[in-house]
Records
---
Amino acid sequence: MNAPLQGHAASNLSRTDTALLSVDNVSLEYRTPQRVVRATHQVSFEVDPADRFVLLGPSGCGKSTLLKAIGGFIAPCEGEIRLQGQTVNAPGPDRIVVFQEFDQLPPWKTVKQNVMFALLASGTLKRREAEERALHYLDKVGLAAFADAYPHTLSGGMKARVAIARALAMQPKILLMDEPFAALDALTRRKMQEELLLLWEEVRFTLLFVTHSIEEALVVGNRILLLSPHPGRVRAEIHSHQYDLHSLGGVGFQHTARRIHSLLFEQGQSPDAERELDFTDIRIAY
Amino acid sequence: MQRGCDLLIFRPRLKRQGKDRSLASLGSSYGAVPGFEKRVFMSQLSPAREEYEVDLQPLTHVPLERELPLGQRLWQQGWLRKSLILLLLALVWEGVARYQNNDLLLPSFLQTTSALYDGMLSGELLGKVWISLVVLLKGYLLGIVLAFGLTTLAVSTQLGRDLLSTLTSMFNPLPAIALLPLALLWFGLGQNSLIFVLVHSVLWALALNMYAGFLGVSETLRMAGRNYGLKGLRFVLFILIPAALPSILAGLKIGWAFAWRTLIAAELVFGATSGKGGLGWYIFQNRNELYTDKVFAGLAVVILIGLLVENLVFDSLERVTVKRWGMQR
């Protein structure tokens, strides 16, 4: 169906100049006291404006490390990351990250101050405009009533919403999300996915989304980059723009999920074995 | 029947996935395979119970919240509990003093209170307190500023980190009082040598706590801060200090206690030589003249100021910051 490509990925074949973010042969390493570990090896892909690009892979494929590198927190040891043609070499407010952890919101600031803080600290806006914009985006994520609450009084889903509102208020060139819903319960996660898609319909931001859940990748993304583990290398790029929350459990959806699963986990096995799999074998992190 | 079926489907699949054979053999004694045990279990139980639904009426006849009784509500007040403890201690003191019946060794609570009252009224005690507090605050603030500079250096450079750890391990165990003779030699008799020992007593304890607090700030919060382009001093001011505030406050409290202790001790030992005497000097003088009740009054003032600062200044500071932010219970 799709022959495994040597080295890296399909997106390279259709290289265009319109790409907003291009990751070019990027290898990343991190240091432990004893050794240097290679997290990703020569990964390349491109993200176009208004893409909902998903990095999907099992744990240990370096997807979060890759996202941090794009955020500018880690320097690649090989290759280059370019945002609108400019090389990324430090963190900046044009790439806002939404983390998985709830402590990404400074607890000493109220919800509104949290959103404003990002705008003021980066020098994007003056106080008056910052407040206006903060309230606007808080309203968008449905938290206008909690503008003066402190983060510790909010539920996990609400904290995630604040982080998203904060990121959107910055109006970054690209929004980086590092498993933002992974720490939420299943019902809240599903609702957040739905809201994220609605927000995207409205604002049309560019999104780079990291997840380890095949289902979430299919629902949230329009393109999915599959990474193999240890070290992370590009395994495939798959379209998923046709799926949303309503296609959960549909035939096409399941078929693609199965295909992704086999791409990720069945490496090096005979095609025979792949065909025998039935749906219960698929690991869906839900 | 059901059990047999499950086993049949299950075992070949495990083999086909190329998993460990030992897992497959475990599967036959179930437990090792998620979902397997449950399915067997469910099929045995499910027919015995029937499904049901309940139509919920609005709950009106039960009050949704009720007030705690007055006694419990009062007991929730921290100041009330603490005052009770103080009252109890005063009672014990009064009792022991009356039993002892020797004003020279142990004046009673009431005698001390009246000495304290007289001292306050004549303004003598208040003057001494003022002298002590001014010196104390100078030393304390200078210590805080230095600790802040040193820890900022420590979080930003490797060399600063080494400097801080070496200096703290060298000077933290050194009693401030032991430095006083040296200070007198360097700075002469007067405030400056007192301030020097005060800075010494505040600086290391606070710097250690502050640095520990900075190290404890979560990686996510740091990255979030850097994401907005915060760097250097702005990063320390807007991210590290508020995030490390619980430890910084603890350090400030410890520093305050150390400073107070050092000051009184320094005045007790060398107070006579330093121009105008403070509270320690007051205690020292009255001991020489055997006004034991005034000695107790002086000590009581030290304690009272300690209690006031702890309960008014630091507690309010905690209430409007770390407690409000949910960083500390």
---
Amino acid sequence: MKKTRKPQLAVIGAGPAGLGAALAASGAGLRDVMLIERDFELGGILPQCIHDGFGSIVFKEVMTGPEYAQRFVEEIRRTDVEIMLNTMVLDMGPDMRITAVNDREGIVEIEPESIVLAMGCRERTRHQVMLPGFRPAGVITAGAAQRDINIEGLMPGRKIVILGSGDIGLIMARRFTLEGARVEGVYELMDHPGGITRNVVQCLRDFEIPLHLSHTVSFIHGRKRVEAVTVAEVDADLKPRKETERFVPCDTLCLSVGLIPENELSKHAGIQLDPVTAGPFVDERMETTVDGIFACGNVVNVFDLVDYVTHSAQVAGRGAAEYVLQGRKRQSPVKVVAGRNVKYVVPQFVSDLNRDVDFYFRVEHPERAVTARILADGKPLAGKKHKMVRPPEMLKQTTEALDVSTGEKTRELTVEVIPGGE
Amino acid sequence: MANKHDFVCINCPMSCSLELTEENGEILEVTGNDCKIGKRYAEEEFKDPRRVVTTTVSVRSGSLPMLPVRSAEAIPKRLITDAVKSLEGIVVDAPVKLDQVVLEDVAGTGVNIIASRDLASASIQPNT
Amino acid sequence: MTPAGLPESAQVVVIGAGVSGCSIARELTKYTPDIVIIDRESDVADATTKANNAEVHSGIGEKIGTLKAKLNVRGNALYDDFVSGLGVDFRRQGLLIVITPRTLPEEVAARMPRSVHDFVLKQVMPRLIMLNARRKGIPGLRMVSRAEVYRMEPHVTRSAVAGVFDPTYGMVAPYKLTIALAEHSVMNGARVFLNTEVSGVNVKDGRVLGVTTNRGDIRAPIVVNAAGVFADEVADMAGAGGFRIHPRKGASLLFDREETREYVHSSVSEFRVRGKTKAHSKGGGAMPTLEGNLQLGPTAIETDDKFDTSISAEEIQEIFDRFYYLLPDFPRSAMISAFSGIRAPTEEEDFIIGPSEAARGFVNVAGIQSPGLASAPAIVEMVMVFLHDLGVPRQPRSDFDPVRPAPPRFAELSNEERDRLIAGDPRYGHVICRCEQVTEAEVVNAAHGIIPATTMDGVKRRTRTGMGRCQGGFCGYRVAQILAREMGVPVTDMTKDGDGSWVFTTGKKTIAV
């Protein structure tokens, strides 16, 4: 009978979130931290993100994904964090019991004192956005194509149509082009790009790749391999307009149509999920609705910016350490409400109003000259003016020790974006 | 004769549409910018647009078949394609260290192409 | 599994490696090993069978007096024996037939006073279904009250009036069943030739002499035509035709297991009487697959293209609209896949099974559409009578091996069993498909199976790689690399599903080894 492992903390996933959390927990005094990773190396998705643009907040320099990962990998090697590679977590129960497997030890049972969930997110696929047509080879998600090209050295196609202008889609338009494929165009359902302007300019404009806003793919042709797609403009309900349909020959349809937090394990553990973010409800320490289970990074919501993933991971790692070392009990949490032009806010709850809290939130629609502010029972606490806010760019706002300043018990917090700014 | 050039500013979410007017290479005017960063950006994009180039090269006996590489500094935008082409035949031997020079003076820019990660030999676990 | 070249001769050539052809071949090997199965696709079960939606009907939906009805009821009764020893899951989960205010066509309902309509729905319709079942000899049906409908299936519309539960209805994975049947046949001597397309059936003096294919001729005194949507064309080659297959498309939607497990417990379908023809139309159903995913469908759309396995936006919408009524809260956003196949009905809408008068030795097994999967054991029984008459020995072989061992499936094992496997082969400890928890060893097994997987879809059908919520985004390149390694070919040779469906192309960079 194999011995059940009982670390102080088990971190599931060793991408930027898991690495950051394990390091923070170790730094906060946990001696027995286990970092579980299914891949054969650390870094999660970062090793395949070979473009630059990472680290400007955390390291104050612009790095590529592999460089950003390597900083953390080097740091974690200097700690006593136990790294389990090639290890897949198969299940996690409500009792915090983890079942994992690898090819050296077989089934590994783990009963940690605390858990940090750092499984990241997955890509939305063709059927989740209901793309009609045939089911040939050559329909691929952008992240999978990125892995194929950048890590494996495999080209998924030669003549590419990209659906979705999220950052990965834009990055891949440039990548495909530099690798000698021809990108016929990027088609975006919405009337604004899904990714940041820098990527629109440096990945599309630099290479004269057309961006077709308010367009979608309405049919995939080809029985064996993609032979073409039909594209069309969309109406106000985002449905294709038949009369605008065009036939675009290509051998590959690359999809960048959204990311979904990866929360199957969270559900098995009985953690409550926020239907808007598709990630767990968390409080200011990134603790989920189950005591002792924390979550950070893209498993909570899709942050886009790796620097914010790292920040949330550091909060979660420190939170787990505090939970284990001090046996922290949560007070009754205060709800955080998404107010005007705010799609969602993380954290969704605040348990301890006597400390600084980082709020991350996303607007519902672009807006000029606004103030993003946080209110406690209607009273403004902190605010920041923005010339422009757009859904692809996540906003961050920090508040300081709430109840200390008001001297009252706060019942509800609101984050809102209102007109009036610079 | 004056010529006009369009740019989109990438420095903040405003994404200002900029129009630069020049005559014989001499900048006359930048319009559409909301702040001075935008003006400077348009001028740079006109005079000497530069980009950091990132791509991969093949690895021999590595724990992975490809090595991510980057230009150590930004290089002129018009030389991106040349830079990437000049890397096509290159195969580096594992192990590789971060920042190791893969190609010197890429496309005559004076900038080196360097490895953007450590990459172990095939038999060794990559980064533990 | 099979030698490189075609054999010169065989006692029986079965054209078509779908569920019908492989069922017949497997039964034949109980009497003679000299069986050859040929198919134009790159894998068995790779045409209509793979897109079959897995229902083993009881026969309740078939018209009394048809061959379909007879073989369906008989086939269902034989199913447990049919699958035993194959290592394939078959589950009689039952079908809950729900009567709703939409059961009678509007024009009929409109002519009735409300109280009469209520009475008809509540009292008459269930009894009609019961009577219909009794006349066809379908056992076990019982009437279910409105309250019981909700107790059994809480997500069914509150408008439901009554129901009937049909307990012999079951599900089996059609491609797994067919692969198992083909492998069982090969274990017992049969040979399978894929990528082999029939271009002629050789007939002389009213007798079949064999077939001509793209890879050569095979002499055979008996040829079984189980060519699915192409059965009419193959029959014409033998001069044994005279019927037309008109392809009819059927699309189904599949949902994320994590979000839809136990959403329904049995299959559920809304009973609707079609207006003009008065024929009963089950109109598809909502069903829990053997793996626990919710599946909705299928549709029925006439097409003139035997290869048209596309799905239109309208078809998806049609399924949604239909099931919004029956299951108002079904989780639309959890859809992970949609698939479509071509049924092979004849003009008469019935099976055409029997020996040809014009070409002795040629046996048609044509027009096999739904309920073909359920009828398979009975089709076999019927066809064997003809085949024995044509010369297949009547004496069972003493050396027939009744058990086809199924390769282990990691996801379905206990931790103790998993540990034992990993100790013997560490590749069982390497999970490469996270959604379906498929290990490297299982892909290796698929690549070296009795009918080896040679394509990504071949691996998928044998192991479930890429069938989960990420649809292969995570495991795609891993499967391609493992399969290529096991086949000893470059990964750029991999295809999704045979010739032309390439997965990777060579880039500008050499991959150094």
---
Amino acid sequence: MQKPEIAIVGGGPAGLSAALSAVRQGAEVMLIDRDPALGGQLVKQTHMFFGSKKEYAAIRGIDIPGKLLAALGEEGKGRFKPVLNTTVLGYYDDGVILADKEEQQAMLIKPQKTIIATGASEKMLPFPGNDLPGVYGAGAVQTLMNVYGIKPGTRVLMVGAGNIGLIVSYQLMQAGVEVAAIIEGAPKIGGYLVHATKVRRAGIPIKTSHTIKEAYGNKSVEGALICSLDENWCAIPGSDLDMKVDVICLAVGLSPQTELLWQAGCEQKYIPELGGYVPLRNERMQTTLNDLYVAGDVACIEEAGSAMVEGKIAGLFAAADLGYDEKVEERFTSFTSELEELRAGPTGAKIREGLSRLNGGAAKC
Amino acid sequence: MLEKTGVPEPEQVKMITPSDVRFQKGPVAVVECFQNIPCDPCRYACRQGAIKEFEDINDLPVIDHELCNGCGLCISECPGLAIFVIDASYSKEEGLVKLPYEYFPLPGQDEEVTGIDTEGEAVCSARVVKVQNTKALDRTPVVTLAVPRQHVMRVRSLLRKGGEQHGR
């Protein structure tokens, strides 16, 4: 059985930042990821990131893992051990992690501290025909295009005008795929308006207060019926529009991937503003189980910038608990103020509200 | 309405438009960022100190058009691709619009293209004066278009005439 000081599950922006923060404190870290390369969803984010210049704003997502890994190589000095192609299957009462390496070898790992940074999964939308080939999640479309260089089809209906729907539409256009329209059930665009403006001037119409009624096609998607919604989100009779598309791309939100946390038995609460069930944690990103920390989308659906800062906090305290507590208060203060700043504006209102409900009323980061 | 359509309202654009006097002096950056989001790279991009320091990362960028020399370093640094440099003093009839353009194939120098507005509609014919795609721009090429002067605040993208088009 391997016994690293700290194990991190998930090598996306949160997990990588947690690893860097922990090795900087002097701890030894094992980072486990199911994919063949670290970076999580960053590996397909070809656009420049928003956020703080300190947290890689204006850098393309695809370039961020390389920067974090270079720092980990330099500062980890043999204390950073990535374990790739490995899926964590279970977390047991005695703190043992069971993992499946390359689908052929079971691994037992007993870390002193564990950080869960498993991210999120995409939500599905119920409508007739949603099982036809050609109906994709936005993440799949982005992976096909930006990781494997495969076009998902020729003409796309994007469902959802949050940041993911807007960005993936933009990247479809860049790949030479037509986007017939972006539809959004809400009366307003959910994503950043500069993204919306960018796709709008590329000629993509954005239809707010619109939803998909059905997908149709013989063997695969040949079209979609969409309709307008009134202020109560009810379909307006006679507003149906037939759109000839061969791809329907769903970008309708994310759910935290909390399975390991349920299994571990830490307390969770249903907070819609944060994406669903999320673990209770203190300001150190420590769950109700002493040895278990969280960071990133598994804790709250948010931007990569905040996920990275959460990772830094979780890594800092997982290491500090093991005695690697150099400048811990000073670093904590700086990370916390960074996080507060990112969440301070109007676009952070939902997150602030959710976090305050999670903490039983008191507004806290 | 911007929040419903993604198209900035004329009043919003008017608020951030430099004065006629400033326009006559030469190139100047126009920052079409209308929503308070946590984002600050533009202020670090400006070497003239024209983009004022943010008190809060959610602040809208405030640009001092008098300090801005129109160098255009901010164009490719804005993750929202919301910064343009306008030179209304280019000639009697024409003005220049420098815009970020992340589509391939890039237009060639002297190519005649169609100038596109924020709604994706054709505005006028435009001539490609320059295409920059240096390493420093980090894969956000900057295209300079010459357009009829009255359209410098309308043209925000381009469409190639014939030839290969990105997804439209």
---
Amino acid sequence: MKTDTIAAISTAMNNAGISIVRMSGADAVSIADRLYHSPGNNKKLKDQNSHTVHYGYIYDGEQMIDEVIVLVMKAPNSYTCEDVVEIDCHGGVIVTKKILNLLIKNGARPAEPGEFTKRAFLNGRIDLSQAEAVIDIINAKNDMALKSSVSQLKGNVMEKIKEIRGNIIRDVAFIEAALDDPEHIEIDGFGEELLERVNDNERDILKLLASFDNGRILKEGIKTVIVGKPNAGKSSLLNTLLGEERAIVTEIEGTTRDTLEESIYLGDIMLNLVDTAGIRNTGDFVESLGVEKAIKSARDADLIIYVVDGTRNLDENDREIISLIKDKKTIVLLNKIDAPSLISKKETEEAVKKPVIEISAKKALGLEKLEKEIKDMFFHGEITFNDEIYITNIRHKTALSEARDSLSQVRKSIEDNMPEDFYSIDLMDAYEALGRIIGESVGEDLVNTIFSEFCMGK
Amino acid sequence: MSYTYAEYDAIVVGAGHAGCEAALALARLGMNTLLFTVSIDSIALMPCNPNIGGSSKGHLVREIDALGGEMGKNIDKTFIQSKMLNKSKGPAVHSLRAQADKQDYTKEMRRVMENTKGLTLRQDEVEKLLVENHCITGVLTSSGAVYPCRAVILCTGVYLKARCVYGDVSRYTGPNGLSAANHLSDSLKELGIELYRFKTGTPARIDRRSIDFSKMEEQKGDERIVPFSFTNRPEDIEREQVSCWLTYTNEETHQIIRDNLDRSPLYSGNIQGTGPRYCPSIEDKVVRFADKNRHQVFIEPEGNNTNEMYIGGMSSSLPEDVQFRMYRSVPGLENANIVRNAYAIEYDCINATQLKPSLEFKGISGLFSAGQFNGSSGYEEAAAQGLIAGINAARKLQNKEPLILDRSEAYIGVLIDDLVTKETHEPYRMMTSRAEYRLILRQDNADLRLTKKGYEIGLIDEARYQKLLQKEQDILEEIDRLQNTNIGASGRVQEILKSFGSTPLNTGTSLAELIRRPELSYEAVELIDKDRKPLSPEVIEQVNINLKYEGYIKRQLKQVEQFKKMEKKRIPDDLNYDDVYSLRIEARQKLKQIRPHSVGQASRISGVSPADISVLLVYLEQLRYGK
């Protein structure tokens, strides 16, 4: 069972200046040789050293397809630990696809999503957390997310997790050494001391967990739902943010019958915007479906933008919305400040008990305040990416949550005055969960720590 | 000239703690069994510490007993002090330890051995294994006699090419000057068996009359003792207990050691064997833990009929004159007279990854091994393996499936799995921290876990089995009753709760809920519980533990379920790992060498990563679907 050779276009499919087609597997070099012509047509890639760059052309039979640079990286010193050939061509969707098709015609197979990374992982080139960060890179939708993935690759998360694990294993080792050799090692009263460290570790884990939201938001955007009673200016806001006529804006209430979704950048934050039908009691069946959907979207949202019509008094529809957004992250926009208003910012704040920003969706006034508010809300006032640690992966988050739960259990055991051996059960669970993030199992860690740190024995 | 002496079903080589259990199990399971020892007077000898049990080792002894082994019964007959360690901790780490009268221990075990039907004892040295077509066919002794047989269990302990060393004194003997076995190693090598050289050590023995106990702390045994054997009640084995004594080394001791380190064979290179980290010599402790200004020293009697005292914590291989000064620097030992010097001992043992989990050699059918020969240390670890090897040799001869206990069933399972899966480069000692599911593997429930298996194997008789079933039923019924007995918030109940410092009830609750409260117990709620039937203390203990730690126990049981899934994924014996393409080189080598029997075992091999396991699982799936 030998792995076959895979190929894929590894740059975005658009009309960029340069595109890269990548190939990995035992036949990568020989397949490339069938297509590659050097300027004098006297060079074979298989005779070239690893990690060399070659200028030339890709030919389909007699027909020249593109002028290219070819990179040859031989096993095992490549990303996948297999022979890898990269063809840098002059972009253009058609040319790039043509080159990929040629590779496939000559024996390569189209790679599945993430298959290069999977091979790198299976060949022991990268660990699980790195592999997943790479996949995140591939999927990164904006600059921030890319930065976050890169910093994860650098091992920030790994270092932090290693540090926490180190703390945990030393405590377990002490407990276990004392249980193993109760006449040599005194453990009474250790609970109090341990409690402090458990709290510290838990705090660190919570920090990482909090950063998960940021991480996900960086990568996937903030799921934002715009709500408001009919004709409050929701669609106008959306259009202003999008800079185009996306939703139908009319003066007739209930125009937006469905929810619309669109991704936009507000500064460098990505918002996945959902415009909704105005929330009101309605007899119109189609519209009432829209209202129901709006309420559901609002429940799942990361952020709700509630648009209040400043030219009308708050009514029962507003009150319904206010109760809907009670426990959600919400920014309230007092819209239509360009027109004579009936309610003030202060009145609105009192009614909704949330921050209120005055805007005019139509005239694009106050949008920078909205951007700042979102940043404050989601990035805890910090938006420096290179020094911060982010968790971007749901698997990491799950493992971190498990570790946190285990540590809470330790705290509970200490507070309940349970015997020390119960602490180590949950501490080891936390240790194991954290290990999953960086791809390390428990193995002999505990026994080795016991022997190296504590003087045991007869 | 060799000649055929007599034929047996099975032969056990060595009469230490492994050999005794192996031979007894074989004979009791109906095998005509011969046991070889270099000295009939040294059956079940305790050449090092004078105790049985201790943390996790106590668990092993109770498991041995639950399966029908002998060690628990023998220590119950011969202990001179008994103590439950970690009593203030959770039930999982309660560990029974007893000081033994060493001579009595040997004498009693010999009595049992000599009176077991189907078991023959023979004093001779086995020099050679006879193997044909990868099957054991017999052994050859130093006298030139051939003993044909169908199974052999090697329990050679520390005797293979043994060498005792202190200072520049070096003698090629086993412990206490007993003769070493100098030929068998070569026969093993010829058969392609990979040998390691390990070392261990023992402290000096000192004449009781020369010790000033007034400078030491007395360490007494427990008033209420717990027997090792489930067949004994505490009142059956009660007796007068003797004390142990605690003293400490000091800066002077450490200085003497540091000044003479160059004369230690461990540091001069005269000893090359790998010693255990958990049982370091005093010179190791002083070097490795330089910041500690004192180390504990336990003075333990070797028996009731001797003045020899064991100096626990001060094993050494320093020269005699240094030992003399070193021991005398310890408070209470100023005038100590040494009876036997401390020494280190080097010996041949095997890389136990050559064994299957049944303890049979992968390459030689019918050849089993157990005990220190397998790279473990400790009497209890040895006995546990001896019992399993004995059972499995007998089952092999009876064409039955081997008994393999997994890590969720017994400490014995953890022990053997570790030995045959993880290459140990030092003598392996049991520890509770090695057991992932220790809340389930308690010493108090070893019978509930294992006696049924012992019965099915044939080492537990009908009466004992019926008693176990009764106990099981009593526990279940009582827990059920407590869960279904509701207690109202009456004034009387509140009074009783108050007397235990327990919060009063708002509404009614079950008795089980009350027992779960940390400050209450089965015993505490007696006055509230009108319908209580009289139950044995063992049943009450189980009821208490099962109710109080229910949450934790349930969680571990869930983990065990996960664990069992991987254990059940069997790997074909003839799997060609070269076909599993994406394995990393190191993993491939390890898997080829160890040939794990399940994916679970594979995952515990060091050097086999979770990614390798994914690859292996994918491959096994492909195999299953015929690719």
